[in-house]
Amino acid sequence: MKKISIFLFLFVSILTNAQTFTLNGKVVGKNKDPLPGATILVKEANKGTSTDFDGKFSVNFPKGKYTIQISFIGYKSVSKEISLTKNDAIEFVLSPNSTVLEEVLVSAVRVKANAPVTHSNLSKKEISKRNLGQDIPILLNYLPSVTTSSDAGAGIGYTYIRVRGSDGSRVNVTVNGIPYNDAESQGSFWVNMGDFASSTESLQLQRGVGTSTNGAGAFGASLNILTDAISEEAGGEISNSFGSFGTRKHTAKFTTGKINEHFEFAGRLSNVYSDGYVDRAFTDLKSYFLQGSYTDENTLIKALAFGGKEYTYQAWSGLTAEKKIENRILIRMIMKLIIINKIIISYTGMRS
User: Fold this and answer.
1) Strands 56-62 and 221-227
2) What are the structural domains of the chain?
3) What H or E segment, with its residue span, contains residue 321?
């Protein structure tokens, strides 16, 4: 009799553990709007499903602990551990992911990989590797069909870009989709954008006639610059670079991170100095960059202000035959990479 009781107890336990329970759920946004087509993944079972038009889903699993991961395009993914011991219901609330809005910001002037336009994309990481104080044209010098020049010979100060043989007046430059070319000369004065690469999130160079309809003619190329993306967390960065010909760059950046889930303020102060490769061709650039952003579920608003002070010697005057004879300046057509060392100190902190 005792053996039969033990057998019945084990049999009931097995049936209980093997019983299947139903988990009903609903996925909504912050405004309680249902999110149809959201992906539900149960990691332990390696199975998943998706929500219906009402944002609802239903899954059946044996008793146990499971990790439910919810993801939806444009929203931050959410993971939650549950202990399934009975039929249960749960609601998941997803928050919008503001980084998706950055793509919309430049969609009117940028092309995708499959577009029939010859182009090159540079990310913030790729720009940072080459960003040692030189102007943006010099940072693009390695791209196909691009040639650059510099008055001072060091890539700092008055610099110029040509794409497929067309000069700067036929290179359409936009910053966040806003035309930057000078209204009179149609060219771009890069000396007025000292250390702007430190505030650049990404850029795209379209060679030849591109997609941009804003600003100057784009017979040579279109260059679209996208400024820093919105940061979720507060932080700061100090960057210092030193090199030959008395070249140095000092940069200080900060961001407040998201304030009240909507506002973010960021800024940069920079000082770039170089004696120049050419004699008496020094450059002293002081610049600032300020950016204020507002985001909600369907809106992104950015306000930018950048400027500074430039102090350059008269390197653009060129040389006379007499000066060449006196050997005051040795002219070389091949520019050298002047920066030999870079030191970066970064800090990122969470707001309390």
Assistant:
1) unpaired
2) 2-93 (2.60.40.10), 100-348 (2.40.170.20)
3) helix 321-325
CA atoms of 83 and 50, how far apart (whole Å): 21
Would you report the helix, strand and coil content of the chain in percent, each value rounded to 5?
Answer: 15, 45, 40
Give kind and range of the element (H or E) at residue 102. Answer: helix 99-105
Sorted by sequence, the CB contacts under 8 Å of residue 333 that are 6+ apart come out as: none
One-letter amino acid of 162: R
3-class secondary structure, 103:
helix
Residue 126 has φ and ψ, to the nearest 5°, of -70, -40
Amino acid at 278: V
Look at residue 15 and give its three-state secondary structure: helix
Structure-token pair, residue 152 = 């001072």
Question: What token pair was written down for 144?
Answer: 């196909």
90 DSSP β-pair partners: 25
pLDDT of residue 273: 92
pLDDT at 322 over 90: no
SS3 138: helix
39-57, pLDDT tens digit by residue? 888 877 777 788 888 888 8
**Closest by Cα among 291, 288, 285 to 306:** 288
What's the CA gap between 136 and 151, in Å, rounded?
15
Is 11 a residue whose pLDDT tops 50?
no
Instruction: Name the 3-class secondary structure at 47.
Output: strand
**Side-chain half-sphere CA neighbours of 42 within 13 A:** 20
Give all strands of the β-sheet with 47-50 in edge-to-edge order. Answer: 47-50, 39-42, 64-71, 78-84
Q: Tell me which amino acid residue 118 is.
A: T
